[in-house]
Each structure stands twice: as C-alpha cells, then as structure tokens.
Design a protein that fits this description.
Helices cover 36% and strands 11% of the residues. It has helices at residues 3-36, 50-56, 62-66, 102-106, 136-139, 145-152, 159-169, 178-181, 216-220, 234-239; strands at residues 72-74, 86-88, 125-129, 192-197, 202-207, 226-230. The protein has a two-stranded antiparallel ribbon with strand order 1-2. Strands 3-6 form a two-stranded antiparallel ribbon. Strands 4-5 form a two-stranded antiparallel sheet.
C-alpha cells in the first residue's frame, strides 16, 4: 500500500474514532442528569444519610451475600446514580428485619451504621396505604390461590423464604390481614395493624409510628395496595405531610 494511502487511512480511522468517542461523551452528558435525578432507593438497614452512604460504600457486596432472604440487590447502570451500591426493591423481596441484622455486621466501612444492632434501630422509610380501592381486606373478598401465587414468582431457595410461603398459604380462602399479621417488626401492631372499616364492613391497614419501612407489607400484599416511601419517617409523612420523595 502506498505511503500516502496509509497516512490517509490512518487519519480517517483516528478522526472516526474521536467522533464516535465524542458522541458517547455527549450522550453521557445528556443522560447523566437523568441518572442523578433518580429518586432515593430503599437502602438496607442502617444505611447512613444518602450522601454519606454513597461516599462510604465501597460496593463490596458483602451485605447482599449475607442476607438470608436475598433481599439486597446491587444497582446496575440502569438504576442511575450509585452503580454497584446495595438497595432493596420491596416489590420483589423486602427486608425481613433479621434479629442480628447480618448485613450491618458484614459492612466493612460503616456505610451501614454499626450502631444498628436490632430491628428497632432500623429506619429505612415508611409504609403508605396508597391504594385503598385495591385492598381486599376492605372489600371482604377472600384471599385466593392466585393472590398467593404472585409471591411464588419471587425466589425461594432456603427454609426462611419457604416459611414465608407456608404462612401465606394459611390465608387462602380467608379474609386478608396479611400485611399486619406478617409484619416482622417486634410487637408488629406498633408498626401496622388492621382496624375496622365500618363503611365497607371490612378491615383496613393502619400504619403506626414504629413502622421502619422494611417493605414486607408491600411485598406480600396480594393487590399491591401498599407502597414504601424511602428515607421518610412516620413524622415526615403522616405528621408533617412530606409526601414528595426526596431527590438525589
């Protein structure tokens, strides 16, 4: 190949490569605000304030490895800000407030505050009974096998996870009080309880001040009538009315 042609070919490749890299860079600039604008995720028990958590977390994944319920996931690029950091999606698998809080014990950097030693120390968020029109407890409909089968789509590989399914099966053909009955908080009525709904002759869940936002009620609700507001306290949502989620 003539030397002049070689030089032209090399120049073309270099310019093309720079152009492609420039497009990727521009794309990253365009996308990054959207990634950084993601709403707060539900973090594992003991998570420090979000900025401190992101600076302390070394993305080692130890918390996820020791979680006996496989509740903790690690964020990928599609989750926006904080790639590699642990979070919990309560609609897939909530936190079951393990007595020894093993995820905190496994954290090497205090991103999960080591002073979180028991379920009562956890403050992940707050449950919100958001869709009362969906609640079959209010409507007095009985829990069907189909309602329970929704939970079977989640992984269940060990005894603890299978025990959750066994407890759910006890509600088949019964009035639904699952959210309150299966709440893992010690003395669960302090976190969530069923109260009479006289207008409909049924029962509805009432969120109480000890709720820590573990997400079990949201995960196990047959109709997804409950959601979790992460990083908010009972006072934030129910007393001060701070209903808008915080933004990163």
């Amino acid at each position: 190949m003539p030397e002049k042609l070689k030089l032209e070919r090399r120049d073309f490749i270099q310019k093309s490569t720079l152009g492609i890299l420039g497009l990727f860079a521009m794309g990253g600039i365009a996308i990054s605000p959207h990634l950084n604008a993601q709403e707060f995720r539900l973090r594992p028990p003991g998570a420090q304030e979000e900025k401190d958590f992101l600076s302390l977390c070394i993305k080692c994944g130890q918390c996820a490895q020791v979680c006996p319920y496989h509740s903790i996931e690690l964020a990928d690029i599609t989750k926006g800000h904080g790639v590699g950091t642990p979070y919990i999606d309560p609609m897939q698998r909530a936190c079951y407030l393990c007595t020894a809080v093993p995820c905190v014990l496994a954290c090497p950097t205090n991103a999960l505050d080591h002073n979180t030693e028991k379920p009562e120390d956890v403050h992940m968020g707050i449950a919100v009974f958001k869709f009362s029109n969906k609640c079959i407890g209010i409507s007095t409909e009985e829990v069907t096998r189909k309602d329970i089968d929704r939970i079977y789509t989640h992984p269940h590989t060990n005894k603890l996870e299978k025990d959750v399914l066994k407890r759910l099966e006890e509600y088949e053909d019964e009035q639904c009080t699952i959210c309150a009955d299966l709440c893992p908080y010690p003395n669960s009525a302090q976190a969530i309880e069923m109260i009479e709904d006289k207008a409909n002759n049924g029962k509805r869940p009432k969120i109480n001040s000890s709720c820590v936002g573990c997400g079990v009620c949201a995960e196990l609700c047959p109709t997804a009538a409950i959601e979790i507001e992460s990083r908010l306290t009972y006072e934030d949502y129910y007393i001060r009315g701070k209903r808008n989620k915080k933004i990163l």
